[in-house]
Design goal:
Chain lengths: 322, 322
């Protein structure tokens, strides 16, 4: 297992880091092509900019629409990069991901289905078709730690797990951010000229909205949690927090609609204060705001009769529920 | 369907009410025996006192230990009534209730199993054995309303549903509190000399802790929610609220224990501000208190990695989740 040396945000010279990592990418890729997938999160956005700086048009960047994105996300993200002179191609892979998730309730199997679909059936095919030998990935040190510790099964840290990605999927992985935590990545993003909407963007999980559905992530449930996510992000936009999210539970709870019993859905809200995602505590949001959020959730999202707010810390909770 | 006229707490003369209802009970029961089940809640406690006042030793009062009670509840309640000169007999029916709940996940079927077990297999037998023809019950007006509206299936309002209890279970039901809401019942309880621990006691559902478990109420899950209930009641004892509760979810969520991934349990806390249970809103408990509660919950209750707090109102939520 490869040992990674942490580069703390406080000690990070972002401009020197950019030069160093862009230089490494140039050296590894040589005169060939590289490829990467942009999710719109700060990690993959920074990697896209580093790769673009090192390789220009020899970096092929794809945005995979896996049907699990937030509302309007593909269009918004591609627009941001277009303004920065970086071309990003959207790949419509909605059906293949939804098919892969059908009938799966276990969180591990869900992540695994998305990983396998992403690498083998979608991105792997793009890589082979593109002729690129090198894949840029936005793995950060927290991903490495948690995967090594067995807390999380990240799909982007094969090397740290001792799996040879060359043999496993047929390409080589370059991880320019593996020494940084989230605060360091944000510093680099700002230095790269990315807009604040990207460098202060909340972390969003790899399995996207399927990680925000407990139990089977059906197209209907993904649509419900997508609506709940819009409301949560609108209502909590003014809150200074590391990350906030809406989670659709599988459990049903009793409610009342139009004076009648209604056995309905529950949405759990989590909003975290954290520096680097290793430890986190619930943000002390005012009840006025929480109640307004709950009111919109039950009024606007079909079937929702109950809303809760997380009050536990990480650990023993994790930030995501799935 | 019998129309019930509301007697509002503000307009209630508790002493006159007691005389009137005790008189009615005497008249209905005549020289015979009556029987009632005491759960320890304010409703059944008031009914026990009214019946005792009317009938003395000709009222037989039973406390059915259904395995779903809070910690130490049978002993505590019988002790309170002993001090008031009222003899209460504890019936150990733990096994029969747990057997009846096995494999049941649907909330309606859960309530039905408890109702049927209570009436047919446990209390019905006691009634027939005792020779009592009359059964006193603590039905209040909110139970009547919600049952008529189809929100809740109460087990104690057969008459209001148009079901003849004489034919259904073989005895006659007397409901002295059917004109009152909870605030009125509390006034009567105080006037009857019941201690504050009874007349200010929180409402507790008929299906007891089985209503605090989402999904199958196994003996293990009941024990978990019993522990969670002790902690919740200790931590929130100083909060001025109508009702608070801990609910064990069936959904599993991801957590971390000893640095390792731990797929664990979630407890939902609900704490309601309400006057009469028809409408309710979450109590604005301080985050300091909520976080202390969550900390104890995850530290002391085996398997719990996540704790949430309800932020929705009734309606569209109900006060209980099951």
């Amino acid at each position: 297992m490869q040992k990674v040396e942490e580069l703390k945000a406080g000690e990070l010279d972002a401009r020197a880091f950019i030069e160093e990592e862009a230089g490494k990418i140039s050296k590894i890729v040589g005169g060939g092509l590289a490829i990467n997938a942009l999710s719109g999160g700060v990690d993959s956005s920074v990697v896209t900019m580093l790769g673009h700086k090192a390789l220009g048009d020899r970096l092929k960047t794809y945005f995979i629409d896996n049907a699990l994105m937030r509302k309007d996300e593909p269009r918004n993200i591609v627009g941001i990069f277009k303004k920065l002179g970086v071309k990003v191609e959207i790949i419509d892979a909605k059906k293949i991901f939804l098919d892969a998730l059908r009938g799966i309730t276990d969180p591990e199997e869900k992540r695994e289905a998305i990983t396998q679909t992403f690498y083998k059936n979608v991105f792997g095919k793009l890589v082979r078709k593109s002729g690129a030998r090198d894949l840029l990935q936005g793995t950060i040190l927290t991903d490495v730690d948690e995967t090594v510790a067995g807390i999380k099964r990240q799909h982007n840290v094969f090397e740290q797990l001792g799996i040879d990605p060359q043999a496993a999927f047929g390409y080589k992985i370059i991880e320019p951010l593996a020494r940084l935590r989230k605060d360091g990545v944000r510093k680099v993003a700002a230095a790269l000229g990315l807009p604040e909407s990207v460098y202060n963007r909340m972390p969003f999980p790899g399995p996207a909205l399927s990680a925000r559905v407990i139990g089977e992530a059906t197209p209907e449930k993904i649509e419900i949690v997508r609506q709940a996510t819009v409301i949560t992000e609108e209502e909590l936009a003014s809150v200074k927090a590391f990350q906030y999210m809406a989670i659709l539970h599988n459990d049903r709870v009793t409610g009342i609609r139009g004076g009648k019993r209604d056995y309905g859905l529950q949405i759990e809200i989590r909003c975290w204060d954290s520096i680097d995602a290793r430890n986190a505590s619930p943000t002390r949001i005012s009840y006025e705001k929480l109640e307004g959020l709950a009111r919109r959730m039950t009024a606007e999202v079909p079937g929702v009769v109950s809303v809760t707010y997380n009050i536990a810390t990480k650990p023993p909770s994790t930030m995501e529920a799935v």
